Amino acid sequence: MAPEALLNAEERERIRAKSALFDPPAARLADGRRELVGMRREEIAAEMLAIGEKPFRAKQLWHWIYHQGVTDFAAMNTIAKPLQAKLSEQFVIGRPGVTTEQTSSDGTRKWLFNFRDQQQVETVYIPDHDRGALCISTQVGCTLSCTFCHTGTQKLVRNLSVAEIVGQFMAARDSHGEWPTPKGEEGRRLSNIVVMGMGEPLYNYENIAAALTIIMDHEGIALSRRRITLSTSGVVPMMDLCGQELGVNLAVSLHATNDALRNEIVPLNRKYPITELLAACRRYPGASNARRITFEYVMLRGVNDSIAEAHELVRLLADIPAKVNLIPFNPWPGSPYKTSTPEAVRAFAEVLNDAGYSSPIRRPRGRDILAACGQLKTATERAKRA
Ligand code: SAH
Ligand code: SF4
After folding, report:
1. How far, in Å, CA of 346 to CA of 353, rounded?
2. What is the Å distance from ligand 1's center to 171 Cα?
3. Is residue 373 within 6 Å of ligand 1 at its C-beta?
4. How far is the CA of 68 from the centre of ligand 1 (A)?
5. What architecture is domain 3-92?
6. Cis before 180 (ω within 30)
7. For the segment 335-379, what is each residue's pLDDT rounded down to a tens digit?
8. CATH number for the segment(s) 97-385
């Protein structure tokens, strides 16, 4: 095993142990029934054995849950009525509760979902003609505190469970009436997933990994890893695992071109500085010209948006298959920064384009419903601080 991998195992255990502090409540209802959503296939098979049924039932259930999208055992017509009844006594096929669902003037849709312990997260659907990306959350709040991010100011933090992560996608599908799972990947309205909502996904790695594995399963939702992009603020050791085990597209929240500034605005940089972060990007499996790493760069007026910094960025990314996503800063109530001027953003982008980088400027979507990048924070939290 490579020395890196050994180091990763240790670090993984350390992060897992730390992450366990934020574990979600158990997937069991007050009446003792168990949640099937979020269980791995083998777990469902084990549950079937435990109630005296054959393991092949797991395959049937999987089809009904993830291909057909049913939530009621009575709709499962390949399963005899007595067994349907028995299953419904022992299990549920749940969805997060919908506290609110808002649609922006630009078609962006935002849900505030609630879970059994009353905690809430936001999920955003960003349409793009006949397709669209669902931006999912992985934690309630975030343990990190990037200075430009609204989520980072939220005090309460817990990890989302596998069911709560997969449930965001399933509930968004319900809302779009996109069941059963469309054949193939073309023509789906929920065609992509970006793991860019609330929370740092690589600090809830086990659950996000299990959730994405369910979503990628060929006999269910069957979304390919090429249609999934995970964004991290730079949890270096977990980036290696993410590449090896999941192979999804990677987005890295860079936001600064020197450690002094990045230490300030992305405090995780003090632990994993830019050189280490970029080294992890260089060794990210599958990174190639066809599958480039996206570097996210929030444009903060007078802070990180100079031409000199654009040149420095080009220098830093020189040997990485990369594209840069420039995100004009989205303000939130009480935020300490201003959005870069459109001229500054254009000039910055021009330097990148001249150096051969694709550098789309991310159009803010759903600003009127506070659904744009970095604006997510649950309404209860907003109300508390008001
Ligand atoms: N925790 C992960 C994923 C969630 S944040 C991460 O940090 O990458 C998704 C993206 O939105 C990140 O690039 C983040 O830096 C950016 N972002 C956060 N606050 C923002 C704001 N107010 N305006 C624009 N982008 C913001
Ligand atoms: Fe957390 Fe990402 Fe926000 Fe930073 S930008 S506080 S890592 S959600």
Report:
1. 10
2. 23
3. yes
4. 33
5. Orthogonal Bundle (1.10)
6. yes
7. 999 999 999 999 999 999 999 998 888 777 777 777 666 666 665
8. 3.20.20.70
